[in-house]
Amino acid sequence: MWQHATTLHAHVEERLAGVLQRQHGLGLSEYRALANLAVAKDSELRMQELADKVGLNQSSVTRLVARLEKAGFTYRDLCPDDKRGVYTVLTDLGRSRHAEAAPTYEQTLSAALDEAQQASEALGSLVAAMRAAFAPTS
Fold first, then answer.
1. What is the spatial distance between Cα 105 and Cα 12, in angstroms, rounded to a whole number?
2. How far apart, in whole angstroms, are the C-alpha atoms of residue 138 and residue 59?
3. What is the DSSP string of the chain?
4. pLDDT tens across 40-75, in order?
């Protein structure tokens, strides 16, 4: 089962990364950082929180945030309660770029899952189970 899950993950990640880069000039980690910041309280997260949500270590998230800052999508701010704490804050430009890229992300994710579902019975069962587990409830 785990091998099927990692195969599915690799397929979906490859599709998402390629499309986001070609159509929006964003890497997958950059998109995920913007997405997490867009839904965070006050559109900001501590650097370690962002690292945890995006699945990166501290040095990798520092480089990621530097790229986002250079593009004007985020800025850093000191934590008012803890001067050692640093927040990454989403800018209006970052919010706009995320809003532009989100439909592409969702459409590509759905298409990649559809492809995987049709590729093999095992992947199809895995995708069907995931969709059932995360289906919106009325």
1. 11
2. 42
3. -HHHHHHHHHHHHHHHHHHHHHHHS--HHHHHHHHHHHHSGGGEEEHHHHHHHHT--HHHHHHHHHHHHHTTSEEEEE-SS-TT-EEEEE-HHHHHHHHHHHHHHHHHHHHHHHHHHHH-HHHHHHHHHHHHHTPPP-
4. 999 999 999 999 999 999 999 999 999 999 999 999
* Cα distance between the two ends of the chain: 30
Q: Which residues contact 17 (CB under 8 A, 6 or more apart)?
A: 27, 28
pTM summary value = 0.89
CA–CA dist 25, 23 (Å, integer): 6
Give me the half-sphere count of Cα atoms (radius 13 Å) on the Cβ side of residue 2.
0
In this structure, how many other beta carbons lie within 10 angstroms of the beta carbon of residue 60? 13
pLDDT band at 4 (very low <50, low <70, confident <90, very high): confident
Tokens linked to 130: 């995931």
Contact 35, 102 (CB under 8 A): yes
